[in-house]
């Protein structure tokens, strides 16, 4: 049996609506969002969806995180606490703003930041918390930690479109700034694109200026109020994203329906743990946590041989062990900004520092690709293969 993939049309919801959107922009002759209408409309629709006042579009999910980090304005050497289990795009914006990523350990069941570990990592130079809703599960408890410390919370929602907290608030609308990705592999896509949302008008303005070279564009004068780069989204991307945004509720409904089926099918399986709240989870991937003596690589190998799109660990190594942080240069030949803080606050990276994250990556975490076009037959085949893989291990 073949499985729909987000790498091609079998696993995407791209269709006539997106073709019409692209055609509309091309016929208008205006492909730039500076003077066009599509990206501004996308921002309004994104803000309305999340019931917030402001949304800012940009060129990628990593760019969205960079806008957020730039907006909270860390000084060189300030620290931002984040997770060791995420894409490097979560860490790169911290370094790009000359700030220092400080990692806190994760919950061993969800892979999301452990609020207790985050609170323990806060120091005098902590400027923000950057939490990730891993695989689409809400990272709970972080807003309370951020509020107690008087610092902003940035939510990385790249994998968490329409994820809901236990109180049903949408991910991205709980923190100070929420960041989203429209990259090829996400729930909805325009190839590459990003969005930020916030209730804070001043932060929204900072992000908009940073995405457009500090050019305010609202008074007809060519001037640059602040430092910024060019992270503008094009009208073509914005139009496709608008068409995709209308399909988002259906995408999530379909992913949640089939995920519920697999959760039920694996519920009685010993040494296998699955997410407990499928109706609030976004199911970017389907994560499974294995208990010893099962190991993720052994089970993943068995699943792959059975034709299941499964992987062990999600990352080659957790981010705090990434070569880029362990010893490689950051700017030029220097380790700046990692060598800037006072000696007592120079972060410690490497194996042995975040044991829960390390155990998930190397031993316990198994992920299965998930898609809105999976059928009951796909789910039943996955369940059968998982049962066989863990029974034979």
Automatic annotation (TrEMBL):
GO terms for molecular function: pyridoxal phosphate binding; transaminase activity. The modification N6-(pyridoxal phosphate)lysine is found at residue 186. The keyword Disulfide bond does not apply. The active site is at 186 (proton acceptor). GO terms for biological process: polysaccharide biosynthetic process. The keyword S-adenosyl-L-methionine does not apply. Its cofactor is pyridoxal 5'-phosphate. Pfam families: DegT_DnrJ_EryC1. Keywords: Pyridoxal phosphate. Belongs to the DegT/DnrJ/EryC1 family. This is dTDP-4-amino-4,6-dideoxygalactose transaminase.
């Amino acid at each position: 049996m073949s499985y729909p993939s987000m790498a091609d049309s079998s696993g995407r919801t791209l269709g006539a609506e997106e073709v019409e959107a692209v055609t509309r922009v091309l016929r208008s002759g205006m492909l730039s969002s500076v003077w066009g209408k599509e990206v501004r409309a996308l921002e309004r629709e994104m803000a309305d969806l999340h019931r917030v006042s402001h949304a800012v579009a940009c060129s990628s999910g990593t760019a969205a995180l960079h806008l957020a980090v730039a907006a909270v304005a860390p000084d060189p050497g300030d620290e931002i606490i984040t997770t060791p289990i995420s894409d490097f795009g979560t860490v790169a914006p911290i370094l790009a703003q000359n700030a220092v990523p400080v990692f806190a350990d994760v919950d061993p069941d969800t892979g999301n930041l452990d609020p207790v570990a985050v609170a323990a990592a806060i120091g005098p130079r902590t400027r923000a918390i950057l939490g990730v809703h891993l695989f689409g599960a809400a990272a709970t408890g972080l807003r309370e930690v951020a509020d107690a410390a008087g610092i902003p919370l940035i939510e990385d929602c790249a994998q968490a479109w329409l994820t809901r907290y236990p109180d049903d608030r949408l991910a991205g609308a709980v923190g100070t700034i929420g960041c989203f990705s429209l990259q090829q592999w996400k729930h909805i896509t325009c190839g590459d694109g990003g969005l930020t949302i916030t209730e804070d008008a001043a932060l929204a303005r900072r992000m908009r200026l940073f995405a457009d070279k500090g050019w305010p564009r609202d008074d007809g004068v060519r001037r640059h109020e602040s430092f910024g780069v060019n992270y503008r989204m094009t009208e073509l991307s914005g139009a496709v994203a608008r068409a995709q945004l209308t399909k988002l509720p259906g995408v999530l409904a379909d992913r949640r329906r089939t995920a519920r089926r697999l959760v039920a099918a694996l519920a009685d399986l010993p040494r296998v743990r699955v997410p407990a709240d499928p109706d609030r989870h976004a199911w970017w991937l389907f994560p499974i946590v294995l208990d010893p003596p099962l190991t993720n690589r052994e089970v993943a190998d068995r699943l792959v041989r059975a034709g299941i799109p499964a992987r062990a660990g999600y990352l080659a190594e957790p981010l705090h062990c990434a070569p880029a942080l362990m010893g490689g240069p950051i700017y030029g030949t220097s380790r700046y900004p990692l060598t800037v803080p006072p000696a007592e606050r120079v972060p410690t990276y490497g194996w042995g520092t975040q044991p829960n994250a390390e155990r998930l990556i190397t031993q316990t975490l198994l992920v299965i690709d998930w898609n809105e076009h999976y059928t009951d037959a796909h789910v039943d085949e996955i369940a059968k293969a998982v049962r066989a893989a863990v029974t034979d291990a």
